[in-house]
C-alpha cells in the first residue's frame, strides 16, 4: 500500500501554528514511508474563504519547505461530485429526504433543551413517505445512520476510541439548496484522493465518528485515523495570540528560519529520545506515529528563539546575506551600497554568533553599513565616551596611520602598543574604540570590526567620536 496523506486547511485566515504542525506531521509521515503528501483547500465556505487566505496558506507551506505532490486540490469545484455520492446513498436507502422546516427544527431543539437532553435531530423524516412532504419545502438529504451498537476507531495516536451510535444523529449530507456539507465533502474528497492516513488535530475526533459512518455506508476503505493533541500556551491554557498563536508569516517577519520552526514544531508532541536538534533528513528517517504523544504540547517562544539561534549560527553566511540586507536597509532608511554590502558579508559570521533571529542579526549588522559614526545605542555606551577617552581615540586614529598590515593580528598588536605608550590598560582603549566604531558596548571582536571597516572608515569614525 502506498501511503497517501493530506493537509486540508480552510482558507479563512493565515496558516496558524497548529495547522503548520499538522501539515508537517502529514508531510513527514508521507516522506518517511515513501508515499504522497497532498494539499486540499477546503473552500466550501464561500462567505469566509478568500483568495488572500489561500495565498497565505500556500506561501506559508512553501516557506516552511513542506512541498506537496501534484496540484493543489480545491473542494468547492467538486460540489457536484459530493452531491452525486449523496444521491447514490439516497437511491440505495442509506440516506433520506428530510422536509423539516427551520422552524420545526428550532422548536425541536428548544424542547430538548427544556427537557435537559442532548440536542440532536430526532429522525422525524427517517421512515416517513416523501409523499407526506409539505408543499413548497425543499428537502435536505440526511444520512440514515445506525441507531444501535457503537462506532469504533482504532486511532494511531489515541488508541481505541468509540461512541454509542445512539448519541449520533442523522447528519445532513446535502443542504436544501443542493450544496454539500463540510462533513460530507471531506469524506468524498478523502476517498477520491486515495487518502490512506488522516492525520489531524484531536478536535476533529468527534467528526471522525460521523465521517466513518458515511465511509461504511458507501463500502469504502477506511483510512487510518491519527488525531494529534492540540498545542497549548506555555501556561497550559488554550493557545492564543498572547502565547504566540500567530500566522507562520509572522514568524518569518520576526526573523525565524524555516528549518528552526520545522524543528520546533516537530518536537511539539513528538519525540525521539532526548534529541532536540533534528535535521530534516533525520526527521524524515525517524518520524512515525507511535512517537506522537497523547498530551497537549506547550508552545514556548523562548525555546523557539533559542533553537533559532542554533540554526542561525549553523546557516551559511551566503544564505543569510539576502535575508538581512532588507532589514539593514529598513533600519537605515536607504539602500546599502556595495562597500556596505561587502562589509556586512565579511562581518556576518562574527555577528551571527551573538544573534538569535534574523531581525536581531540585521540590527546588529547596521553599524557596518553606516556612513560615519553610528548612533550611540544607550547610556551605557555613551558613558564610555568621556573627554579623556575621546582624546585617546583621536590619538589612536593618528597611531593607526603607521599600520601597514590591516588585518586582525597586526591591528591588535598596534592597539596594545598604543595602550602601553599611553600607560593605560587595553580595556580602557578597546571599549571606547568599540563604541566609536559600532555605537554599542557589545559587538564581535573589536579587532575583527576594525579590520572589516578598513583604515579610512575607522579613522573617520574615531575622529567623529573624538570631536
From TrEMBL:
Protein name, as recorded: Glutamate--tRNA ligase
Principal location class: cytoplasm
Domain Aminoacyl-tRNA synthetase class I anticodon-binding: 340-464
Keyword Ligase: yes
InterPro entries reported in the protein's UniProt record: aa-tRNA-synth_I_cd-bd (IPR045462), aa-tRNA-synth_I_codon-bd_sub2 (IPR020751), aa-tRNA-synth_I_CS (IPR001412), aa_tRNA-synth_I_cd-bd_sf (IPR008925), Glu-tRNA-ligase_bac/mito (IPR004527), Glu/Gln-tRNA-synth (IPR000924), Glu/Gln-tRNA-synth_Ib_cat-dom (IPR020058), GluQ/Sye (IPR049940)
BP terms from Gene Ontology: glutamyl-tRNA aminoacylation
Family of this protein: Belongs to the class-I aminoacyl-tRNA synthetase family. Glutamate--tRNA ligase type 1 subfamily.
Enzyme Commission (EC) number: 6.1.1.17
This protein's record includes keyword Nucleotide-binding: yes
Segments carrying motif 'HIGH' region: 9-19
Sites where the protein binds ATP: 241
Catalysed reactions, as listed in the record: tRNA(Glu) + L-glutamate + ATP = L-glutamyl-tRNA(Glu) + AMP + diphosphate
UniProt-listed Gene3D superfamilies: 1.10.10.350, HUPs
Enzyme class of the recorded protein, top EC level: ligase
Subunit description: Monomer.
MF-aspect GO terms: ATP binding; glutamate-tRNA ligase activity; tRNA binding; zinc ion binding
Assigned keywords, A-Z: Aminoacyl-tRNA synthetase, ATP-binding, Cytoplasm, Ligase, Nucleotide-binding, Protein biosynthesis
Role according to the record: Catalyzes the attachment of glutamate to tRNA(Glu) in a two-step reaction: glutamate is first activated by ATP to form Glu-AMP and then transferred to the acceptor end of tRNA(Glu).
Domain of life, per lineage: Bacteria
